[in-house]
Structures are given as C-alpha cells and as structure tokens.
Amino acid sequence: MSNKIYPIGIQNFESLRQDGYFYIDKTALMYQMVKTGRYYFLSRPRRFGKSLLISTLEAYFQGKRELFAGLAVEKLEKEWIEHPILHLDLNTQKYDTPESLESKLNRTLVAWENLYGSEPAENSLSMRFEGIIQRACEQTGQRVVILVDEYDKPMLQAIGNEALQDSFRETLKAFYGALKSMDGCIKFALLTGVTKFGKVSVFSDLNNLKDISMEERYVEICGLTEEEIHRNLEPELHQLADKCRITYEEVCHKLKECYDGYHFVENSVGIYNPFSIFNTFDSMKFGSYWFETGTPTYLVKLLKKHHYDLERMAHEETNAQVLNSIDSESTNPIPVIYQSGYLTIKGYDERFGIYRLGFPNREVEEGFILFLMPFYTSVSKVESPFEIQKFVREVESGDYESFFRRLQSFFADTTYEVIREQELHYENVLFIVFKLVGFYTQVEYKTSNGRIDLVLQTDKFIYVMEFKLDGTAEEALQQINDKRYALPFERDERKLFKIGVNFSAETRNIEKWVVEE
Fold first, then answer.
1. Which partner from 321, 351, 455, 466 sits 20 to 30 angstroms from 88, CA to CA?
2. Between the CA of residue 163 and those of 5, 106, 126, what are the distances in Å?
C-alpha cells in the first residue's frame, strides 16, 4: 500500500513540509508570479488550494529555504531575503453585521501594531493599515509582502442583503486602498477569493491589481492536471483500480468523469479538484468529497430569487465581462455559480467572445442538482437520494404508475401567484427529477413553450413522454403520434411506452397521464 500522507485540510505549507505530507510542486509558477509582477488577484472555487498557495508564498518571503528542499524554487531562487509579511485571513469569521467585519480587521491590525507600533493620529482602519505598512518597511529595511486570503468572505455572506453588502464594500474598498497609496513600501501582494465583485467593487480604486484568474500561464497554479496525477500517483492509480475491482483504464476514466473538467481559461488543460482527488486516494474509494464540504444555499437563493430556468444551466452562454463581475444589483446568478465552481468553461466562440458553460464533472452536477431538490419540491434533504433511487427502480421495472404517483407528490404544497412562475416551477421540478434519473438511465430532454418532450431509455424499456401545461393528457399523447416521436425506436426490441401528461395550473400538479403501449 502507498505510504503517502495526503494533505486533506492542511493549509499551512510549513507544517505540511515538516510533517512529511504529500505535495505536488507548484513553486515554479509561484516564483514566476513573484518575479514578473507585484499586485495579483486570483479567484478559484473553495477547497482548491488557495490558502496553501498563500502559505507557500509566506514561507518563501520569510526566507525559509529549508522548507523548499527538492522543489523547483530551491534552484531558481538565489537570495532568500526575509520580508515583513502582513497576512490577513478573512475566512475565520461570521459576517452578519457591519461591526463584525470592522472587529475582524481591528483584531488583525492590533496584532500587527504590537509588532510595528502605532500612531495616535491614525484614527481609521485604512490609515492604521497604511501606517503599519510604512513602519514595517522602515523598521526592517525591506519592503512588505501583503497576503489576503478569502478577501470576499464578507461579501459572499451578505448576498441578498444589499445594505450590508454596501457597508462591507465601502469598508474593504477603503482598507485595500492602502495597497495603492503605499506602493513604494510594498514588495508583493496577492488577494485570493472565490468571487470577483465587479463594477462598484472593492477593487474599483485598485487598478494596479492584476487578475490572473483567467490567465493561461497560471491555470495550473491551484488544482491538479492529469499529467501531474500520472507523474506523482501512478502506483496509487493501480492500487485504486484493484480496490474498486476495475481496470486501470476504467479507474482513470472514472477519476476524469467525477473530478476533472474545470477550465478557468478557454482551450486550456482540464483541472482536477485536488480535495476530491486526495480524499479518493486516501480512502481508496470514490465519493462526493468536495460537494459534501459545502452547502451552496446562497446560490439556490439567487436562482429562486431571479426565477432562473434550471435547464439553461447545463448550456449557459455568456461573455468574459459577465463571468468576471458580480455585484449585488445583478439579476444574473450565473457569475456567482461559475466562480463558486459549480459551472465551468466548456467552449469558446472566438469570433463573438462568447463562453459556453456547463457542469465540470459528475460529482458537481449530480451533487448540485440533488442539493436543489428540497428547495424546489416537497421532498426533504434526507429523503432526496432515496426518492431518486425509487424513481430509477420504477422506470427500470416498467412501473410507470408508481413513477407518476411519486412525481405528483413532488408538486405538493407549492403556491405561485403568477402563471409564468408556475410554468417555470413545473419545468424546474421535472428538470431536477429527470436530470437525476438520467445519471442512471439514458434521458433526452427538450422544452418549448410550456411543453416538454422526453425520451427515457433503460435496458428493457423506452418511454416517450410529452408534458403539457393546461392542455389535456390525450392531446399530449396525440402529439407523440402526430409528430412520430417514437419512430426511431420502431425496430427496437425493448418495450415502448408512449405517455401523454398534463400539468394543471389550477391544481398546481400533474392532473392526468395516459399511456399507449
């Protein structure tokens, strides 16, 4: 068995190296950043190694050469000069009032002032920050390194609360403004976070900050490439295959299907989620490791608030300006969902500058859709996986009556005043159900003006369905026959069911279904 100790939850580079944890060398890219620029911003989803990158830079700027033995930067760096470091981690606080952010910043400033002194005339958070930068530079004779981890945590927690978000924005904008005013005293600065809040953002005065989130040369700085996995974990891949009782080729394919697929730049190499990869090799089994560590409730609130059509999510199209900016007034939930790691770049139209988005991999797609179910249906979070299991068993055994009765229960207790909202709600519920069933069967799903065409295939059965809103089930079945939807399956040996379904706006539920075998 492998003797590797995987760095699951380890965010401190010094302890990682001293305690012998497995590390994939990213220091050549780190060195390139340091030598070719000064002010950087990097956005990546949670659990992608941002905090470890910050900690690696901290050790590097502390001149701790011994921690980098055997790594690329050991040969690249000749001087190993120690710099004063101001490291702000906004990840460790709940931000629900304006005072909560001010209190966090004040505690950090007090710790820095204990090191570098304070001045009575510095009577605001930003003035104190400026004074600390200046004194740290003067007292040590070296320019200062500023590292900010999860700069956007307060902003994310205030999504949906415009007044609180405005308050946080003004506080952070003034605070980070010190980076510009104290330029002569700063050697290097990196701010990381999940999202980039655009337009009237905390960065609007920081035009010297270089955003490398969508730069191809830094695409591998967080996360793992396929080449890195094969170069560093080849014996473990064979062990994983043996443990899962599948072939080496099948295990590589499954890793790719479950955890690969992040593209932060168009036409770039796919990035694997490091948290899920390390957990898989540590446990020697596949699981929804990344998804289980976070509940994206704020994303669901955005989707529901803006009456988002969920079917669009798997093939959403947008441009770089939209992808790169989030602000509280925006009616588009897609930038937040993209930057949080639930969608990624799947294609790019160079002529028009349009990005096609989609789910990066199966772990994210299945996890996210399953997470949505309790918010859109009457089914609880605990029951959701079991309900899908029952749906799949029913269609696999040809029991369409039980399938539709179960589907009816999903629409119970829904109240909508506006007809369009009802229509969207019924489309969203059907999308969630059939998307999840589609992970275990073959589903083709199309929507158009309140009706849905659907083909569901299992080993023994084929279901051709037409869903109508405020028509009749008989009309829906007639349309299947008139449009000859079942024609491709006429020679198929599997049993064919043609099913017309009507959804009633009055009862807010499936009113009737008729079946022709």
1. 321
2. 46, 21, 21
